[in-house]
Every structure is written in C-alpha cells, then in structure tokens.
Design brief:
By secondary structure, this protein is an alpha/beta fold. It has five helices and seven strands. It is globular, with a radius of gyration of 26 Å.
C-alpha cells in the first residue's frame, strides 16, 4: 500500500503507524477463533419452570427452576430478610438435579402493594409513582437517594451471602 508523502516528501507518521497496526492485526487474527463462542452452555437454553415445584417426570424438557421475587417480598423491614421461598425452590431444583436461577427485582407485579419496601419510605427515601391512564400505579424509591443505595446494597449483599452459605 503506497503511503502519501507530506509536503517535504517524507511519509506521514500515520502511515507507519497504520502499517504496524495492520501487521499486528494479521498476526493476532490468525490465532483467534473464526466464530464467537456462546456465552452460556447449550444445556442452559430451553424451557425453565417459573412456577416451580413441577416434577421432572412430568416436565422432562424443563432445564431448571427459575424464581422471580420482588424486593418488597424478601425485605419486610430493615435488615430483615426472608429467603424461605428461594430455599424451597432451590431444594426442589437440587432434588431433581436441575439448574436454578433467581431474580429479586426492585419492583414488579409480584410485589404485594406494587411498591418497593414501604419501610424505606418511612425512613426518608423519597418516593414517586407513574401517572397517566395506562400507568401501573407502581411506587418507586428515588434511585439516586443515598439511603436508597444503602438499603438496596444491603438486600443484594444479604442475597449473595444467603446463596453462598446455604447448603
């Protein structure tokens, strides 16, 4: 590839840099796989039991148990957590030699009052809700509030600790 010369007849510095990058890419490119690898193992794709407690004998195509919970369900008061539903579903999955996944959402339809934990609003976290005729009437905590961040981190750390230490 010809390099264009500057006004003094000297090749531009960018041309030399470009050639170096092109040569490095050719060397590295030869050792890289020609296709991307999947992020998850193939056996993780398929049908997941989100209702829970279905027997593998009745649903042999189910890959595992999946549980979605709301923050309000598991964190009824500050530093008070109820992981019993996770424990029940985790045990069911283990008994059937299935994979298990769980998610604790800040807010979703499973929340009894369609709200984040009410105790945190009493503790001073500002709240707001949707408006309009099609609004779902969810009550949210202000995500940027310093206390909100502390309470959410407490819940995440409690879940992580529970999952690491449960047997």
């Amino acid at each position: 590839m010809p390099c264009h010369k500057g006004s003094a007849g000297i090749p531009h510095r960018r041309c030399g840099l470009f050639r170096l990058i092109l040569a490095a890419a050719a060397l590295v490119g030869g050792s890289m796989p020609s296709r991307a690898e999947l992020g998850l193992a193939r056996e993780n794709f398929g049908v997941w039991d989100r209702e829970g407690l279905h027997a593998v004998a009745d649903y042999p195509y189910a890959r595992g148990q999946s549980l979605d919970m709301s923050w309000e369900q598991v964190n009824t008061a500050r530093n008070t957590f109820d992981w019993s539903e996770i424990n029940q579903k985790l045990q069911s999955a283990e008994d059937q030699n299935q994979a298990f996944t769980c998610k604790v959402s800040p807010i979703d339809q499973s929340a009894p009052t369609k709200s984040m934990p009410g105790w945190m609003f009493s503790a001073g976290v500002p709240s707001f809700s949707e408006s309009g005729t099609a609004a779902a009437a969810y009550v949210y905590g202000y995500y940027l509030d310093p206390e909100f961040k502390i309470y959410f981190e407490e819940m995440v750390k409690s879940l992580a600790s529970y999952l690491r230490t449960s047997s």
